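Bumping my old thread because nobody answered last time. Still need a sequence for this structure:
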């Protein structure tokens, strides 16, 4: 598997960016984390539910730069997590990517109305999600 090693001068190795993966499937979370670990300066946090994700997001100093979330999870689903993040003034601008197996044909429109930055249906391409995350993180630093 070839890895794309493009690193422009805008990359700052000392800059650590936290990305939170919210996923109840250990396999999906691990696949996503492995795809993201090649991004310079990226630190991955993981939560198995929206409730746990909120706890992490509210921790002092967590400074999450982006969220990748599933929708169908126990305790608190991704829809509720997204709603709460978008209502919180401190987190409102955090980019959110949804990766979900939700088969409801209205789901992509529903999450778009919630101001989600990208939607990927499962099975997903980790490389495509990684590219989108890199675009969103780069746009945030411009």
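Sorry it took so long. Here it is:
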């Amino acid at each position: 598997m070839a890895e794309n090693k493009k690193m422009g001068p805008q990359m700052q190795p000392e800059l650590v960016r936290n990305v939170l993966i919210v996923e109840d499937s250990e396999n999906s979370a691990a696949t996503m984390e492995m795809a993201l670990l090649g991004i310079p300066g990226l630190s991955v946090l993981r939560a198995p539910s929206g409730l746990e994700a909120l706890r992490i997001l509210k921790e002092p100093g967590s400074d999450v730069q982006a969220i990748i979330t599933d929708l169908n999870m126990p305790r608190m689903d991704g829809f509720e997590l997204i709603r709460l993040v978008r209502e919180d003034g401190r987190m409102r601008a955090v980019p959110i990517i949804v990766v979900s197996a939700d088969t409801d044909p209205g789901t992509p429109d529903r999450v778009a109305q919630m101001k989600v930055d990208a939607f990927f249906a499962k099975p997903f391409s980790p490389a495509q999600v990684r590219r989108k995350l890199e675009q969103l993180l780069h746009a945030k630093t411009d």
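DSSP finds five helices and five strands in the chain. Let me know if any region looks off to you.
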